[in-house]
Design brief:
Layout (H helix, E strand, L loop, with lengths): L9 E3 L5 E3 L3 E2 L7 H13 L3 E3 L7 H11 L7 E6 L6 H15 L6 E4 L11 H17 L6 E4 L3 H8 L8 E5 L7 H9 L3 E5 L11 H10 L3 H11 L3 E2 L6 H6 L10 H8 L17
Helix pairs in contact: 1-2, 2-3, 3-4, 7-8
Length: about 290
């Protein structure tokens, strides 16, 4: 693996597209001034990878911040996601066009299926995913998306998708942090050349109270967040930290001037369950 030294270093996706190794997450960031200000602060802090979704309800504000930032579009990597109500060929095509309009962009760098098995579609999830993926493959061919992928998919969902897919997903964005390393999913991703992206890399804030991480943060003279983001990078994951505070947004970029020891990595690996586990996509109620 190429040594990672800065925020704009990249991983190569399975289609050759370069993706910055850390992204700025916007899940649970309310639309309006808060989303606008936080994305603008992230871009000012040096982030060039912004992650949003139709379901977050903040694509308008994310897009406005991107437009007002003065950063060249070609320097940015922007991800959004297809929500559950829009599964199926025609619905997926319309959903991407709606997201592009809200973002004010001609294309996204990555478009993801947000969940594999929405509650209202459990009787027909496999066919709907196949139809959705066909629409996304067309969007990819038409350069409306530079790469396409999935989120919250388990091996069974990926196996089903790959029965008909012509394009292997470039990314699987999953709940991935010291509390749940999702080893079976990560192993599957690795075996198929799919990058594991970590949403909630800080365990939706729950990891900050973990004694082992507090002790480690003092050892390295870093914050708990910085330690955990560094852990994520050393595993080859792509973390998507979220914050609405400019000082923490900046702090979360300062993770390239230290390295965790093997023993400390192992300690963090052993924290399963301390901040909850990933939702089962086959049983969630949405």
């Amino acid at each position: 693996m190429t040594k990672i030294t800065k925020l704009t270093d990249t991983y190569a996706l399975n289609n050759g597209t370069k993706i910055p190794v850390v992204g700025f997450g916007t899940w649970q960031t309310p639309d309006g001034q808060v989303a606008y200000d936080s994305v603008l602060a992230a871009l000012k802090a040096g982030y060039r990878h912004i992650d949003t979704a139709a379901a977050y309800g903040n694509e308008d504000s994310v897009g406005k911040a991107i437009a007002d930032s003065g950063v060249d579009r070609k320097e940015l990597f922007v991800t959004t996601k297809l929500w559950n109500a829009d599964h199926g060929y025609e619905a997926a095509k319309k959903a991407l066009d709606t997201s592009l309009a809200k973002l004010g962009l001609d294309y996204v760098d990555l478009y993801l299926i947000h969940w594999p098995n929405p509650a209202d579609m459990r009787d027909n999830w496999e066919q709907l995913n196949a139809d959705t993926w066909r629409a996304m493959e067309e969007a990819y061919a038409d350069r409306k998306a530079r790469a396409i992928g999935v989120s919250n998919f388990r091996p069974k969902h990926l196996d089903a998708l790959l029965k008909t897919a012509k394009v292997v997903p470039a990314v699987n964005q999953i709940f991935l942090n010291p509390s749940d390393m999702e080893p079976e999913v990560v192993a599957y991703n690795d075996a198929h050349g799919i990058l594991s992206e970590a949403y909630s890399p800080l365990g939706t804030g729950k990891i900050f109270g973990i004694t082992e991480l507090q002790t480690m943060a003092q050892k390295y003279d870093k914050s708990v967040a910085q330690v955990v983001l560094r852990w994520s990078l050393q595993h080859g994951f792509l973390p998507l930290p979220k914050s609405v505070h400019a000082d923490r947004i900046q702090q979360n970029t300062e993770i390239f001037d230290f390295e965790l020891s093997e023993d400390d990595m192992a300690t963090i690996d052993g924290l399963r369950g301390v901040a909850g586990l990933a939702n089962d996509p086959d049983t969630v109620n949405f």
